[in-house]
Known about the structure:
Elements: E1 7-13, H1 18-28, E2 36-47, H2 53-63, E3 69-73, E4 84-90, H3 97-110, E5 118-128, H4 132-142, E6 148-154, H5 155-160, H6 189-198, H7 215-228, H8 234-244, H9 246-249, H10 251-254, H11 263-280, E7 286-288, E8 295-298, E9 303-311, H12 313-318, H13 320-336, E10 343-353, E11 363-365, E12 369-371, H14 375-393, E13 397-404, E14 413-423, E15 425-426, E16 429-430, E17 441-446, H15 456-459, H16 478-492, E18 500-503, H17 509-520, E19 522-526, H18 539-544, E20 550-555, H19 560-569, E21 574-581, E22 585-590, E23 593-599, H20 600-605, H21 634-642, H22 651-654, E24 665-667, E25 670-671, E26 676-677, E27 681-683, E28 692-698, H23 708-726, E29 733-740, H24 747-767, E30 771-777, E31 781-785, E32 791-795, E33 799-808, E34 825-829, H25 840-850, H26 864-879, E35 885-888, H27 894-905, E36 908-912, H28 919-924, E37 931-935, H29 940-946, E38 952-959, E39 963-967, E40 973-978, H30 979-986
Parallel strand pairs: 10-13, 19-22, 29-30, 36-39
Antiparallel strand pairs: 1-2, 1-3, 2-5, 4-5, 4-6, 7-8, 8-9, 9-14, 10-14, 11-12, 15-16, 17-20, 17-21, 18-20, 19-21, 22-23, 24-27, 25-26, 27-28, 28-33, 29-33, 31-32, 34-37, 34-38, 35-37, 36-38, 39-40
Amino acid sequence: MVLKLAHRIEISSKIPDARADAKIKHLQKTGLDGRVRSVEVVDVYTVDASLDTDQLRAISSMLANPVTQEASVDSPVHPARFSWAIEIGYLPGVTDNVGATTREGIEDLLKKELPAGVYSSQLLFLDGNLKRSDAEAVAGSLANPLIQRIHIKSREDFNQSRGMDVVVPRVRLNTPPRVDLVNLLESDDAALALLGKQGIPNPDGSRRGPLALDLTYMRAIQDYFRRLGRNPTDVELESIAQTWSEHCKHTIFANPLDEITDGLYRTFIQRATNKIRKKKGRKDFCVSVFKDNSGGIIFDENHLITDKVETHNSPSALDPFGGSITGIVGVNRDAIGFGLGAKPVINRYGFCFANPDDASPLYKGLGHTQQMLSPRAIMEGVIQGVNSGGNCSGIPTTQGFMYFDSRYKGKPLVFVGTVGLIPRTSAGRPSHVKEAQSGDYIVMIGGRVGKDGVHGATFSSEAMDSGSPATAVQIGDPITQKKLSDAIVKEARDLGLYTSITDNGAGGLSCSVAEMARESGGCSVQLDRVPLKYPGLAPWEIWISESQERMTLSVPKDKIDAFSDLMKRRGVESTVIGEFTRSGSCVVQYKGETIMDVDMDFLHDGLPARPLATAATPRIPDNEEPSFGEPDDLTRILYQMLSRPNIASTEFVSQQYDHEVQGGSVIKPLQGRGRVNGDATVTRPVLGSRRGVVLSQGMYPSYSDIDTYHMAAASIDTAIRNAIAAGADLEHLALLDNFCWCSSTEPERLGQLKNAVRACYDYAVAFGTPFISGKDSMFNDFKGYDADGKPIKISVPPTLLVSSIGVVHDVRNVVSIDAKQAGDIVYVLGETREELGASEYYALMGGKLRGKRFIGSTVPIVDAKRNRKLYASLSHAIKEGVVASAQSVHRGGLAVALAKISMAGMLGLEADVSGLVRDDFTLFSESQGRVVVTVASQYSSQFEDIMEGNAYTEIGKITAAPNFVLRNEFGSEIVRTNVHELLRSYRAEFGDC
């Protein structure tokens, strides 16, 4: 009997499929509403192996639920009625998580390894009055051609060819792997500049992709190799480029800037933390800051908690799902790579998008070529990626936000973070201390290496344009990483089987091995030992690829057998690829030939200083205060404010992200009976303890249009205030900074950056909240063409995300935002001033009156001394148990904060609000340092005693009737509605997502 070389197994549903309903809902947004009568979804598995009938029958039984599904082997499945069949699968070399998991299941079932892969795809049958162009539009809205293949057949073609074709997306690399010398010594400045920008030339004259090295750096590399008397290999030049990239070395923060000779990071961020820690003395809760994959602080006498927030902007613009899932599982590895390995216990996220309804196309290439994905496709893909990464990893995703601005159309910002938990000691060692020892084996564990992720670090160090490489995009595999994580943090760490660990993130092995080699003094690598996804990769690709789910460890030789055996039993691939040394050099060999021999000092510290200069930011012409009359109907204005994308409910995201896994959720993403998004969450990572971790954040990109110093101050104040309102202790609260800037070689942008970083120092020191970790992404610009084919540059607004993490000593004292019972008194803490510059209210009114956003100039000013005192008093009141609910006042102002308290509790609220010349300014000013709290009447005297010396005002009460009524200082009703109408507006923007 002749066996087929590949088999196609199709799984169809016998019952209504919710996925089909979701597809129809999606198609309604593409302009095909009413023209698609039905959609059916079939899952397809292509098995690249010769298998007999019994084996195929067993496999199909494993893949299909016999109650709800039917399986068909090598015979097409289709509904009785359909017009078009569309199949979407992955292109060769793209990570296929479903296919990989299916292969593993088949191998377990058959008790043997398959010689090749298993590939997943999805087949859609559309019935309706549709042309081929309609089917192509549907496919284009569902697939990303950068990573996915699309196959479309009409009903006639499908029947004639008896189904869809058998496609086996194997990778076939025809060029033999080789190492090239790069003619650097004879290159003039023009050639050096071209090499740094476009990369090493290929034999056909094309270029490999960006090294992201400017002329200053290229000259330094040329001088180094001139001293050695030889040209570099391509492996050496690519490795130096990864190590020196802005993504890895943060050169803009490190270089001298104007009079700041030590750079922005050391002068402002690091110095602030050092000063705060010194002042705290014995009360210092920081343990490991700015020197590891994450920052670590004390949780209790037995544990530390770690935190890191990363960005994955550029890859998410090209492939939103792959970019975001890689971001979240990558930052999970920052927790696993902290010290000797922390367990990821909480995920957090933040997304900055353009308006999802903006359908105007952008192109990377001239002549309407290389079309960028739409804002809606980016939003949906990013949300799905973080969903998959967190949910499949068993890590609760508790805290997050979304923010919208048209300037994120060219490049979204995708923030992802992970909190880790680690015992303070492990196997008799301080767990936050690690050091690779000379003589230890270099061990790579986890996923294999492929072309995905080549030039990821250098790609992320530049603006996005027509040369942005597809290979820079990876797709994370959370299942593989979950096995790796459990094997490390639950077993290998506490058995003392390794001395150091880090993740293979930016730069892949080239950075992880070389970074760990600094601990020992050198390394020797046998590159041909590295496991590959497929044969044919060039040595430079193996060395710098950022293929995911990999970590590098240093394992003592007397522990290698035990370590390797443990990894094998846990299903984690583990390979010795070299040895750490004290040679002072990074030496890499491939098939017995030395292909890299670079001095460690030059590799890490050889990049020359590049002094930078700032210039004052020109004043925006329309930065005067807007002139418009007070609206007659402020109730209607409040509805419109609540439905603005930057204020509206994001419940559709929170519902997708599992925040209950691991069982520690205390204050959840959606709070109260009304399910309103809160600004902070609290999680109990040690279930036997009452201590909790509180997370929040602050971010005001729009304020950068006026003043980046005050933008940064407001971000810090809000991140702190949100956490305090939930029950955090100001004396045990830390910050993380994530700068996402644009055009960071322009003096005006550097001037804005300098002001923002200076504010970070001033306000962190004033509040006593140290920075423990951070990240910067400096070139968030898009250069391409608009819908008319005209050149366009889109730069994100200067954006600073400040994240806060604190320890709550007793989670029984934490406070949610929802009003608790009728009769409770409503207080506003802090002062309301006429500060509406770059506010949501001005944005709303600008759009209503003249089709663009009003900016203004009255940006909120933070009084840190006054606010610190207020937050300390509020924290005391919460610990005393006299605060029923608390809501920070921030984006949207006082009216929005009052509405959230009422909506969350599904109770009414009546209040008198006054203080400013105009009622609309009173309702929607975004003055910082304010919190709305509710207090049971029996505790009001105690609460007021605690708050004595602070600015606070009793303004109203909670009512049993669901009415929401706000009056001005003259007793006139300026807002009258009810909780149900407020919720309707609050949920309107994303209600159909």
